[in-house]
């Protein structure tokens, strides 16, 4: 008898092989010999998204690739991916990508957090076992941090180098808290919109330790105060290399389905006593996303 994980994986493989054919959630459920009602609930509970939404976003992602890699008409692409008309395709495309297919083609950029990659293999395993699909909501007070910062991008990830420098210079930081909690901070990016982030987008990142007070900042280091407020907190368990998969879920799935609204404060990661190192499969990182009350 198949496990739920095996049924989900089989269903996703079925979806991937039928993206350009007539396909609905009932047919996908039948492919794993379950009723639509039963499988729909299993899929949503274990992956954090509705089956129909997954199918639609996978089609739109593949359609976006064709838009950028060919000169085929938008109508032709819409019909290939089973949209009834160019208008229906454009409306659905804009809901996900924020712009029309024509404008998307002209800009010729792939926004990494809006695309829906295939949920198979390690990506599926990580989604099922290592992410809290529903965040806890918490209030925090101001947190003072001292550390090092730099510019990073998805295709030029220098964050490990920042942490290496921070750990080498930890002894220079005054007034460290007794817990020695460290933070990875992504301040608000005024010149980078979320929908526009690509593999080449550059943004600021800071790695630092919590301090009791800001005093005598070492040369070449910076201070930052994480603002008090309300945060949605996700648990990531695994290596730091797997963080990309967790953020793909947060920005690409959770954010699209939550009634909560983002606030203009830094999002950050907390590395505490349950973080055992960047390569440890049981390391826990607590990801804080700022939300409005």
Give an overview of the whole structure.
With 293 residues, the protein is an alpha+beta fold. The mean pLDDT is 93. It contains ten helices and eight strands.
Index terms:
293 residues; Arc Repressor Mutant, subunit A; Multidrug-efflux Transporter 1 Regulator Bmrr, Chain A; 38% helix; globular
Characterize the biggest β-sheet: 8 strands, antiparallel
| CATH class designation of the largest domain | Alpha Beta
How large a portion of the residues is in β-strands, by DSSP E?
A: 15-25%
Alpha-carbon distance between the termini? 45 Å
Short description:
By secondary structure, the protein is of the alpha+beta class. It is built from ten helices and eight strands.
In terms of topology, how is this protein built?
Blueprint lengths: L3 H13 L8 H7 L4 H12 L3 H19 L4 H7 L5 H12 L3 H7 L13 H9 L6 E5 L2 E10 L6 H10 L13 E5 L16 E8 L11 E5 L2 E9 L5 H15 L9 E5 L12 E8 L2
Antiparallel strand pairs: 1-6, 2-4, 2-5, 3-4, 3-7, 6-8, 7-8
Helix pairs in contact: 2-3, 5-6
